[in-house]
Amino acid sequence: MLLEHLQAKLDAIRAQDLTRFTRIAETGTAPRQTVRGSDGTARELLMFCSNDYLGLAAHPAVADALAEGARRYGGGSGASPLVSGHSRAHHEVEALLGRWFEPHIPNARAIGFCTGYMANLAVVTALGDGDAEIFSETLNHASLIDGTRLAKAPVTRYGHCDVDGLRALLAASTARIKLIVTDAVFSMDGDIAPLPALLALAEDFDAWLIVDDAHGLGVLGELGVGSLEHFGLRSERLIVVGTLGKAAGLAGAFVVAHETVTDYLLQAARNYIFSTASPPAVEHALLTSLALMRGELGRERRMHLRALQARLRAGIAALLDRHPSLPWRLADSQSPIQPLIVGGNAEVMALAAALEREGLRVPGIRPPTVPKGEARLRITLCATHAQADVDRLVAALEACA
Ligand SMILES: *Cc1c(COP(=O)(O)O)cnc(C)c1O
């Protein structure tokens, strides 16, 4: 019965052109990656899909640090952090991140998690208790949404970047603890939340602002500290989740906030307490990748990334001018995530397949990840792309137009 039940659901997914599948990467994360397709053949593709924005995943110093960490600590951490899994390297990564955020959050402390998904579940469920009300932005990442589903607090959604709507909701709330929860850079749209206005609301209504900076860390700001640095924000009311598998090139995540918040997470976050700590070698390597991110290499790569963004946007804008009847629309994004909204599910998958025949991999994103009728190519740029790579993408899109 179960198999028939599941097969009927799989058939329904297929009928809507929504079937998802994995492909096997035969080489490491890089703009040129050898990938095995569903037909079994391996090809080198020019990739516009990874979140390794600074190209640190394949940096030799990061790989060396990972190997050194493995020689020092071996493989796994062996236990949860509160038992015996919290290594010297875990401690140093947390201390480093606490110092990074001190200019933006007074008394900042960081607490590490294995993934961003876990960190988001932790912060939203631990703080979103029966005394709280959660105000959640409509386009938040799935992990924040799952956090709100698990939290005891009632959840009120507000519209995308709708500051006035949120103000009205906060004004009407009688909750003792108010938590505003938002992505900083929206992962499927690439636009940036109006954090200064949201923080002003938090100050006015005695609320707290939880910011998921998965796509801002390493990318935004002069030093790569992310969206708080980008906007020059400083407040005790800021609680930031950062992920370390994207621009930091490795894996893991952290919550950084006033030390009372992180002290409480350590006591109360079930996925911190009941889950094995990340491998210490990964933490050891993070000390290297975070130093690269903040240093001269990071600064140069952030500048290059911004130049690539501008070149791609100009190229696609010119293409759309030449083809005014095309229904495509380039999202208004100031980040390395540059979505090209195509419309239908079948259309976007056909476009992605046509690009792949030309040797380019740009993923099509369909509902429910994005709204119905807004299926899109999610183009992501990395600092390891050359300007010629961007030109090749624009030329290939023109050929498909
Ligand atoms: C990727 C992502 C996460 C999850 O982080 P992982 O470390 O990959 O689990 C959380 N929030 C946003 C906005 C993301 O893009």
From TrEMBL:
Highest taxon listed in the record's lineage: Bacteria
Pfam families: Aminotran_1_2
Aminotransferase class I/classII large domain ranges (all copies): 45-397
Listed GO biological process terms: biotin biosynthetic process
Enzyme Commission identifier(s): 2.3.1.47
Binding site for substrate: 20, 141, 369
InterPro entries according to UniProt: Aminotransferase_I/II_large (IPR004839), AON_synthase_class-II (IPR050087), AONS_Archaea/Proteobacteria (IPR004723), AONS_Proteobacteria (IPR022834), PyrdxlP-dep_Trfase (IPR015424), PyrdxlP-dep_Trfase_major (IPR015421), PyrdxlP-dep_Trfase_small (IPR015422)
Keywords of this entry: Biotin biosynthesis, Pyridoxal phosphate, Transferase
Modified-residue entries (N6-(pyridoxal phosphate)lysine), positions: 246
GO molecular function, one term: 8-amino-7-oxononanoate synthase activity
Residues the entry annotates as binding pyridoxal 5'-phosphate: 116-117, 187, 215, 243
Gene3D superfamilies linked: Aspartate Aminotransferase, domain 1, Type I PLP-dependent aspartate aminotransferase-like (Major domain)
Family: Belongs to the class-II pyridoxal-phosphate-dependent aminotransferase family. BioF subfamily.
PANTHER family assigned to the protein according to its UniProt record, in alphabetical order: 8-AMINO-7-OXONONANOATE SYNTHASE (PTHR13693:SF100), CLASS II AMINOTRANSFERASE/8-AMINO-7-OXONONANOATE SYNTHASE (PTHR13693)
Function: Catalyzes the decarboxylative condensation of pimeloyl-[acyl-carrier protein] and L-alanine to produce 8-amino-7-oxononanoate (AON), [acyl-carrier protein], and carbon dioxide.
Subunit field text: Homodimer.
Name used for this protein in its record: 8-amino-7-oxononanoate synthase
Gene behind the chain: bioF
